[in-house]
Specification:
- The chain is of the alpha+beta class.
- Helices cover 47% and strands 21% of the residues.
- A hairpin with an 8-residue loop joins strand 8 and strand 9.
- The termini are far apart.
Length: 291
């Protein structure tokens, strides 16, 4: 397939995903979206599945249920029906059925502590996370308003060791083009605390104002959403990151009285554990919040 065709397909797939995230709590009109993109619905679905490994409807359901899983914990005074409506479900029963199928427990069971056992099973998929002794209980975030970030990226299917190879490819691009000023950013399309690690969409990105024409010919571009975020500055070893994210979503967020949104969390690396010889990281973690 020609490089121009691949770039065009990546642009379409990213436009669809961006639309889904920004309209997740409303009616998503794929007919209208295909019209705006000037492609057929059939072509739109095919391009999306090739890029993300699942169809658009599966992605919509996954994002809505991830949001519901968080809202059930952070919106303590909302009824399950309220949360179903907030996540785009018009039927209480269809929401319960979809949630139970996804998490192997009802929303009520999840709310009463089931989320802990579910997340612990996911944590067990990473030996390094299970061996982590890090303690984040005294960590306090700063609340910041972040601008939109335009980045170049390579997508990695799965939160796994393959991420190192993905970062090495981006690093090769940086060195080959003698880029001096840049940021390394990881965009987490899926919440690895409640999504099996082999199913997570991990996006390795670089943000730079240099060599735009050269970079855009080699790798696709993506916009990271602007908004209000809780920013956590964290240092540690590779296995500490999953444990940290588990703490953010299932301890800090629950006790903070904030709620998260459907905007993906992201990491700005000051030291990238996937590229460092000692597997250590120094990062700022951003989680989107409302109050």
């Amino acid at each position: 397939m020609k490089k121009e065709t691949l770039e065009k397909r990546d642009k379409i797939a990213n436009a669809i995903m961006y639309y889904v995230y920004t309209h997740i709590d409303t009616h998503i009109d794929l007919e209208e979206l295909s019209y705006d993109l000037d492609i057929s619905k059939f072509h739109m679905h095919r391009v999306f599945k090739e890029a993300f490994g699942k169809n658009i409807y599966e992605s919509i359901k996954s994002i809505r249920l991830q949001k519901a899983a968080n809202l059930l914990l952070t919106n303590r005074y909302s009824t399950i029906s309220n949360i179903a409506n907030l996540c785009g479900y018009s039927s209480h029963s269809s929401f319960i059925k979809a949630f139970t199928k996804r998490f192997d427990m009802s929303p009520k069971q999840w709310r009463k502590g089931g989320y802990k056992s579910y997340s612990n099973e996911i944590m067990k998929q990473s030996k390094k996370a299970m061996n982590s002794k890090a303690d984040f209980s005294r960590l306090v975030p700063t609340i910041v308003k972040m601008p939109e970030i335009k980045s170049y990226y390579i997508r990695n299917k799965g939160y796994n060791i393959n991420i190192r190879e993905t970062w090495q490819k981006l690093q090769t691009l940086i060195l080959n083009n003698d880029i001096k000023e840049y940021k390394q950013i990881a965009l987490l399309h899926d919440n690895p605390v409640i999504t099996p690690l082999n199913e997570c969409q991990y996006i390795a990105c670089i943000q730079t104002d240099e060599k735009e024409e050269t970079l855009s010919q080699r790798v696709p571009k993506f916009k990271i959403s602007s908004g209000v975020y809780a920013k956590f500055d964290v240092q540690g070893h590779q296995g500490d990151i999953l444990k940290f994210m588990n703490w953010v979503y299932h301890e800090w967020l629950i006790n903070s009285e904030y709620e998260t949104t459907t905007k993906p969390s992201y990491i700005i690396y000051h030291k990238n554990n996937f590229l460092s010889d000692d597997n250590e990281f120094n990062m700022s973690f951003y989680v989107s919040i409302n109050y």
